[in-house]
Design a protein that fits this description.
Helix content: 40-55%
Radius of gyration: 26 Å
Distance between the termini: 38 Å
Number of helices: 14
Oligomer: single chain
CATH topology of the largest domain: hpI Integrase, Chain A
CATH superfamily of the largest domain: Intergrase catalytic core
CATH class of the largest domain: Mainly Alpha
Strand content: 5-15%
CATH architecture of the largest domain: Orthogonal Bundle
Largest sheet: 3 strands, antiparallel
Length: about 350
């Protein structure tokens, strides 16, 4: 509970403005005073990032360079290097640094930010080489995704289903404009962020129909999809509700970005031959090594572990040929023919509720 102290003459209940001002004042500690040269150098670095990168990427770069500017002299490369290499973790409970060093991955991020600063200000800098081990991405199960989707509103059910089907990042979906959506073909064209390539994703018939209805209800003067921050907040609400409803604490590990991991794993198995190169193109990675990192998180499946939907067509009937053609068009795979029957199957996909 936030408490406020007022003078006797102005004793009153805090307004929304007071609460907002308190939150703004206590969000983070103020930066140390800087000389004009340092501040101008930081602005020179951040200005092109503000125009080229997403808001979240810009904010991350800004926070990292501000941290280095508060603790070191940015024009003293030896000081910056020594600070990053000896940086310790912060205990969130007490707000002080512990005796454990930060990961090499975070150190590499700090060195990359400082390298960007030096490049923007034409300063030579030789980055130390660090070996960073990245955690294996969490790939949720189909059941976990369905539990969380069951708690979403219809609007966000459409949005989350698109993300779970296409491996589109929240910020990439936010950046999609009306002219990048082909409702006739049921396709979405995205511009990659986080060094992802651009891509075009065809939607499944049911998802495409839901998207048409979603856009028909949405104000045409607004962008097709809400901001990424709104998506994240809605996902957290749905996940919290699903945890309580299904008494499943494991759902807490499933983040919004996990939908991209889920889509990549589904594509990897649905491709038939488990092709890593096809999965790389699907996820729009520039390097196969990045795709391989995701593949390490995939639970190895056998043919018996997969769940399939089976269909049987009796041969010799008047519409047998048409039934077979319809099954093949809907993604079913021919298995065998026996006892005057032809058998098909298709692995079960995410059910949209």
């Amino acid at each position: 509970m936030v408490s406020f102290k007022w003078s006797h003459a102005e004793k009153r209940e805090p307004t929304l403005f007071d609460l907002a001002q308190w939150s703004k004042d206590h969000r983070r500690k103020p930066h140390r005073p800087r000389d004009t040269r340092t501040q101008q150098a930081i602005d020179t670095m951040l200005e092109p990032i503000r125009k080229q990168k997403t808001y979240q990427q810009f904010e991350n770069e800004q926070n990292r360079i501000n941290l280095l500017a508060d603790e070191t002299d940015l024009f003293n490369q030896a000081s910056v290097t020594a600070y990053i290499l000896t940086l310790l973790k912060i205990d969130p409970n007490i707000g002080k640094r512990t005796g454990k060093p930060v990961s090499n991955g975070y150190k590499k991020c700090l060195f990359q930010t400082y390298y960007t600063f030096c490049t923007a200000n034409q300063l030579p800098f030789d980055r130390p080489k660090l070996h960073a081990t990245f955690p294996i991405p969490i790939i949720p199960t189909r059941q976990q995704i369905q539990k969380i989707l069951s708690q979403a509103t219809w609007k966000y059910t459409v949005i989350f289903s698109i993300m779970a089907e296409t491996a589109i990042e929240p910020q990439e979906l936010t950046n999609v404009t009306h002219n990048r959506i082909n409702l006739e073909k049921g396709e979405i064209s995205v511009t990659g962020t986080k060094q992802h390539a651009n891509g075009v994703y065809p939607l499944r018939p049911k998802t495409a129909e839901m998207l048409r209805l979603y856009l028909a209800r949405r104000n045409p003067n607004l962008p097709p999809f809400p901001p990424a921050k709104s998506m994240e907040q809605s996902w957290q609400r749905c996940r919290k509700s699903a945890i309580h409803k299904y008494a499943d604490p494991e759902l807490k590990k499933v983040q919004l970005k996990s939908l991209r991991n889920f889509a990549g794993a589904e594509y990897y198995y649905s491709a038939g031959n488990k092709d890593a190169f096809a999965t790389q193109r699907f996820m729009r990675h520039h390097r196969l090594s990045t795709t391989e990192l995701y593949l390490r998180g995939i639970t190895i499946r056998t043919e018996d572990d997969d769940q399939y939907t089976s269909r049987t067509v009796q041969l010799g009937q008047q519409d047998s040929k048409q039934q077979i053609q319809n099954l093949l068009d809907n993604g079913y795979t021919y298995i065998l023919t026996a006892d005057n029957h032809t058998y098909f199957r298709k692995r079960k996909q995410l059910q949209i509720t």
